[in-house]
Amino acid sequence: MRRAVDETAWLLEQWARWSKINTDNVGYPSSTPFARMAGSSVRSPVITDQEAAKVDLAVSKLRARDEEMGEVVRLYYMAGENLSYVVRQMPKLDRRKADILVKSGVAWIDSALYVP
């Protein structure tokens, strides 16, 4: 079975959406009724909990193995793929190095997800 080249990046996008939903509300809604009526700025993920958990585990393993790369990948996808945000949050990095770390991190996660 062939996978699309950008499948891992898509899974990371969906994982970021999944992890933003009800992060620590212990079963209670995270917004007021008015805010729910007005609509949410976070789009719903198109990923199962099982797939998201696999991606979450891969990101956690990356952060344990290479803390800087893992944090860059996490920030990048949590910020909606905004490299400028990553560079502002991690001032030791320049834009070029952050871009390289994101691409390397996505490749590492790809291998963690798909290589048996």
Give a written overview of the molecule.
- The structure is a single chain.
- The chain has 116 residues and is mainly α.
- It is built from six helices and no strands.
- α1 packs across α3, α3 packs antiparallel against α4 and α4 crosses α6.
- The longest helix is centred in the C-terminal third of the chain and has 20 residues.
- The chain is globular, with a radius of gyration of 15 Å.
- The mean pLDDT is 85.
* Distinct helical segment count: 6
Shape: globular
How big a fraction of the residues is strand?
under 5%
Cα-based radius of gyration, to the nearest Å: 15 Å
Mean of residue pLDDT values? 85
Largest sheet: none
* Elements, N to C (H/E): HHHHHH
Total number of strands: 0
The portion of residues assigned to helices is 55-70%
Q: First CA to last CA: what distance?
A: 14 Å
Entry summary:
The chain has six helices and no strands. The chain has 116 residues and is mostly helical.
Q: What does the secondary structure layout of this molecule look like, with pairings?
A:
Elements: H1 7-20, H2 33-38, H3 49-65, H4 67-78, H5 83-89, H6 95-114
Helix pairs in contact: 1-3, 3-4, 3-6, 4-6
